[in-house]
Amino acid sequence: MKNLKKITALGLSAAMVMSMVPATLASADEETGKVYYLNFKPEQATQWEDLAAKYTEETGVQVDVVTAASGTYESTLKSEMAKAEAPTLFQVNGPVGLATWKDYCYDLKDSEVYKHLKSDDFALKNDDGSVQGIAYVIETYGLIYNKKLLNDYMATDGAVISSVDELNNFETLKAVADDIQAKKDDLGIEGAFASTGFDSSSDWRFKTHLANLPIYYEYKADGINSTDAIKGTYLDNYKQIFDLYITDSTCEPTVLSSKTGEDAASEFALGEAVFYQNGTWAYNDIKDNEVADEDLGMLPIYIGVEGEENQGLCTGSENYWCVNNKASEADIQATLDFMNWVISSDEGRTSLSQDMGFVTPFDTFTEEYQAQNPLVTAANEYIDAGKESVAWCFTTMPSENWKNGVGSALLEYAQGTGDWDAVKTAFVDGWAAEYAEQNEGAAEDATEAATEVATEAASEADTEAATEAASEADTEAAETETETATEAA
How far apart are CA 192 and CA 125, in angstroms? Predict the structure, then answer.
């Protein structure tokens, strides 16, 4: 019976040791901190995972990278934030996204990352001056064009222009596009513009990026940065550039509903179109095809506004890093250290600029850490020439529902089953309605998210209490069993 005592005692000792191990490890994790990054860009998921692994190997700090599926970031973020192990580093797309998550944003004003930011234009600030988000990638879009095809056109009889420098306003752009369309057979192309597809892989180019232009000019004229009620001052300008896209195109407007982003990229990459609305990120889709790197250029999107000869490209960001202020102090510090390493180490800077192809707003990215992308070079030429960049005002659009409403109205108009008045209604009335609903909803979302986090924490506390009670019950039972066995002996 003495053996029974020993076995029971050993069993209890082992159970105690096993129960202590997780607590010890948790304590160590708490001291060093760990990072959980919820990544927004699926196309760079592998690069982020590789970078995280390098950092862990170098520092011993755990970095987990989870990438949300395309189009699901907001819902994924909401779900992940409700967990006990929530993201310590996440993203918002701008002021609208920040409105939902501002209560979760750590003030970055004293962070090393913020100190290396070239301009406050790339920071999201609260009314009290706190820095709640920092852009980590700057992107540019406009009218990508094929220099060789444009030169071929300029060599034709009666060409409207003799130099691309003359192409600096909507009136000239329309005259050139119309003439190219008339001469497309002679030029061996399908159309002046790549297809204006309204498949979900492409419609954002028009309901969001093209729609940015009338919003930008209205904000500029009114001296504002956002509004709860867009007036639609420049919607006629929006109409005339959209009309040009669908008229001087590689396809008939009736087939636009099924045209994809890949279709448009392919048409341009294979030399079937002269112009293609997209951004610096599209380089990987069009390189290594018929269009040589030296033949890639980018023009501003002109819509017929006074003074647009001085307009530059559309430059901005919808990728702002935010640090979760609900995380532990150790995890917050670990996250800040990781962010600083990403923008200051050789591995981090090489990954962002070369592997991911990002243009960044940090002064740590010296000449050797610049993206090798001819479209980025074109964008920089406009900045160097002193042209006025068009801000990304689309980050103030009230909701995805608003974008979808505008997109549906645009497609109906293009196909001839709707009129432009419906586009105006979706744009103006839809904005006011969605803004009101979203601002009410943002407060509800914040409350709901906080409630979910609290509920999760309470649930875990209940589980821990139940586990502890069960453990105590097991211990008491074991002690009783030992006493009974001893008495029997």
Answer: 42
Q: How many domains does the chain have?
A: 2
d(CA 393, CA 316): 9
Q: How far apart are CA 227 and CA 232, in angstroms?
A: 12
Q: 141 by DSSP, 3-state: which? A: strand
Distance in angstroms (rounded) separating the CA atoms of residues 86 and 322: 13
Q: What is the CATH number of the domain that holds 400?
A: 3.40.190.10
First CA to last CA distance, the chain: 6
Q: Are residues 274 and 356 in the same domain?
A: no
Give the tens place of pLDDT for each residue, 376-415: 999 989 988 999 999 999 999 998 899 999 999 999 999 9
Q: What is the pLDDT of residues 7-21, one digit of tens each?
A: 333 333 333 333 334
Give DSSP secondary structure letters for 273-327.
EEEEEEEGGGHHHHTTSSS-GGGEEEE----S-TTGGGEEEEEE-S-EEEEBTTS
Residues 269 and 143 in one domain: yes
- Regarding whether 75 and 40 lie in a shared domain, the answer is yes
Q: How far is CA 318 from CA 53, 93, 267, 469, in A?
A: 26, 4, 27, 49
327-341 burial by CB neighbour count: b if 16+ within 10 A, else e? Answer: beeebbebbbbbbbb
User: What length does the chain have?
Assistant: 489
DSSP string of 314-351?
A: EEE-S-EEEEBTTS-HHHHHHHHHHHHHHHHSHHHHHI
Torsion sign over Cα 86, 92, 98, 99: negative
Span 459-473, pLDDT tens digits: 554 555 545 555 555
Same domain, 360 and 235: no
Percentage of the chain lying above the pLDDT 90 cut = 73
pTM of the shown model: 0.76
Confidence band, pLDDT 50/70/90 cuts, at residue 445: low
> Of 272, 277, 273, 268, which Cα lies nearest the Cα of 204?
277
Assigned token pair, 482? 């030992």
| Domain ranges, residue 65 | 2-138+318-384+443-447
